[in-house]
Design brief:
Layout: H1 7-34, H2 43-62, H3 66-69, H4 72-88, H5 94-106, H6 129-155, H7 161-166, E1 167-171, E2 184-189, E3 192-197, H8 200-209, H9 216-221, H10 227-236, E4 238-242, H11 248-260, H12 264-273
Antiparallel strand pairs: 1-4, 2-3
Helix pairs in contact: 1-2, 1-5, 1-11, 4-5, 6-11
């Protein structure tokens, strides 16, 4: 019997997984509502996770399987550093980085044993969970533009084709209550509002790493600073903004799909080469 078929060894990781799922679901709710995740949200998961992690590694050592688990250590260190660099280069937000690092440290491998039947599509090589979570999250995030394109087509929203994948129109009078980045530039000539979409390259850059575009959150927090822009948005009637889905949502979806469905990367490889 190998390490991963021992329920007693995997139990602390399963407890950590449940704690993190609850934490992430709450974090997604807060991120959607406030576009901010309170720091205290992470404390219960850490308080539960550290004792469970000690229990896990103690069980590994007492079972005489430390040699089997040694490759996990450099993988964990590599992913923790990589996720930290994601934030340094503005690829993801701080809350996203905290979530990915906690998943990497507290649930380094799949907490289900083979006898449970999970994940549905089987375990990836060496059952390193964080890679599966990250890949699944990226897949989910790539599906979002297709979802917005379908929604825009159904609603009859008109814009140059790429923008149908990247955003949607909102009422200019309600833009402060929406979340996203303004995708149009407005000028007023002889009392008439003229509008142009920003370049698609700039739109993608702003969507990924911030840039200098106008965030709707800034409009709400600093209305006096954006008085001119708000007046133009209201006069224009509608304004196209990029979708503001927090990456914490794909991360949460990536964790859930990894735990119950398995590694989508491995499934893709099998489908391509089968």
């Amino acid at each position: 019997m190998d390490l991963f078929s021992m329920p007693a060894v995997m139990l602390p990781l399963l407890i950590n997984a449940i704690a993190l799922i609850i934490t992430l679901i709450y974090g997604c709710r807060e991120d959607i509502r406030e576009r901010a995740v309170p720091v205290v949200m992470w404390y219960p998961a850490v308080a539960i996770g550290i004792p469970m992690l000690i229990w896990f590694w103690y069980s590994v050592i007492t079972a005489g399987d430390l040699r089997l688990m040694m490759p996990l250590i450099p993988l964990i260190l590599f992913f923790v550093v990589a996720f930290y660099l994601f934030t340094r280069f503005n690829l993801v937000g701080m809350a996203d980085t905290k979530a990915l690092i906690l998943i990497t440290v507290l649930i380094p491998c799949f907490p289900f044993v083979p006898l449970t039947g999970y994940p549905v599509f089987g375990f990836p090589p060496y059952v390193f969970l964080p890679f599966s979570v990250l890949f699944n999250a990226v897949v989910i995030n790539l599906i979002l533009p297709v979802t917005f394109f379908i929604m825009n087509v159904i609603r009859g929203n008109r814009a140059p084709l790429p923008y149908l994948f990247l955003g949607f129109p909102v009422k200019g009078s309600e833009i402060e209550d929406k979340f996203g980045i303004v995708m149009e530039e407005f000028t007023e000539v002889n009392g008439e509002v003229q509008r142009t979409f920003i370049g698609i390259g700039a739109a993608i850059k702003d969507l990924v790493s911030g840039g200098r575009r106008v965030y709707t959150k800034s409009l709400k927090e600093h209305p006096e600073r954006y008085r001119k822009e708000l007046a133009l948005y209201r006069k224009a009637g509608t304004v196209w903004i990029s979708y503001g889905v927090p990456f914490l949502i794909p991360i949460t979806g990536g964790l859930l799909t990894a735990l119950f469905l398995g590694d989508l990367f491995g499934l893709l490889i099998r489908l391509v080469f089968s």
